[in-house]
Amino acid sequence: MPCYICGEKKLYKFLSLGQQPPSDAFLRPKDLSKPETTYPLELCLCESCHLVQLNYAVDPEKLFRDYVYNTGSNNSLKKSFANLVNNLVKRFNLSENDLAIDIGSNDGTLLSYYRPHKVKILGIDPSSATKLVLANNIPTIVDFFSRKLSAKVIKKYGQAKIITATNVFAHVKKLDDFVAGVKDLLTDDGIFVSESGYLLDFIEKLQYDSIYHEHLRYYSLKPLEILFKKFGLEIIDTERGSIHGGTIIVYAAKVGKRPIANRVAELIRQEENFGLYKKETFTNFAARVKKNKLALRKLVIEKKSEGKMIVGIGAPAKGNTLLNYCNLGVEYVSYLVEKSRLKIGLYSPGQHIPVVEEKRLFIDQPDYAILLSWNIAQELISKLRRGGYRGKFILPTPKPRII
Ligand SMILES: [Zn+2]
């Protein structure tokens, strides 16, 4: 598979997590005996434009229609959306004459924060999570965003002053078509704001469990500059965010329409100093990933042989990557506790670990609980302690440790 941004055909494959089922493909009890479809999960570096990407893309129809994640269930995410929207309204003087579009709008949580400011809103999302927008009363088009859909939106709603795409821009398979559609859809002074997992955090904090089939690209700023340039857009500002373990927020506008903040060049310098444009950085990363797997397995096997009970906290996509790559199944992890009603009663893809209600943790009091949603570890630990859990927590990455 060639580079999504520059088209380079020869990519440097630095990490393989093996064949895995899609990490959000939870199974119903009656599906457990059927074979699961798996796809390669491998990361490559483009040595021309420095983009990091998967070398295999699963058909989006298979990944996103039955999406079992809903934004409104995550408190840190909600807070981050509220901040983002309030900043956008203030900074770009958004008013009732402006249209704000959110691509990958999920249950409409982000868009709901525009409400007090009277900004016109529209969501676009293909997944079943959009069923919840009816309750939230958010106008939503249930479809994949594309250049073709963009033309339809312009006809019906006009152009948008703000287009946001949070945690979705790295998931789009037809990237060029997507960016072309965004450019068409923006007003002349419009801004495209994307927030995606940041490669620098990913490498530094060893977030290999953020690798899953939906997540096709692992962005740093420099390759994105090259991407936007192809479409007459330029990056005018950037920030680092803290949700999902570290994100990059990128503001792009039509060339020459907005001043460019110094922070853009500064962050590219930081990336260069960190080694994001060097092959060795990725070779070292892969070696650290393998070491982590061995260390985590050793810890879990040791505790299990002492007769301890171990469970998992949360059933996020990243948890499945980790459990599948480290080959930790029900013989080690008895069950995963979840709050999301969409997942309770199902089984994790690959390892087939049952997903149960959170209250089981307080009843069974297992000796160890692996924090699979480490990105909200602090929030979870204090909440579960308050709930009465008395066992110990295991943080799996960057170095497995007991707390
Ligand atoms: Zn490239």
TrEMBL record:
Concerning Gene3D superfamilies, the annotation shows: 6.10.250.3100, Methyltransferase, zinc-binding domain (6.20.50.110), NAD(P)-binding Rossmann-like Domain (3.40.50.720), Vaccinia Virus protein VP39 (3.40.50.150)
Please state every residue range assigned to the domain named Methyltransferase putative zinc binding. 3-64
Q: Per the database record, which ranges form the C-methyltransferase domain? A: 243-398
**Tree of life domain:** Bacteria
Which residues does UniProt call coiled coil? Answer: none
PANTHER family per record: BLL5978 PROTEIN, TRANS-ACONITATE 2-METHYLTRANSFERASE-RELATED
Q: What is this protein called?
A: Methyltransferase
- Where does this protein come from, organism-wise? Candidatus Falkowbacteria bacterium RIFCSPHIGHO2_02_FULL_42_9
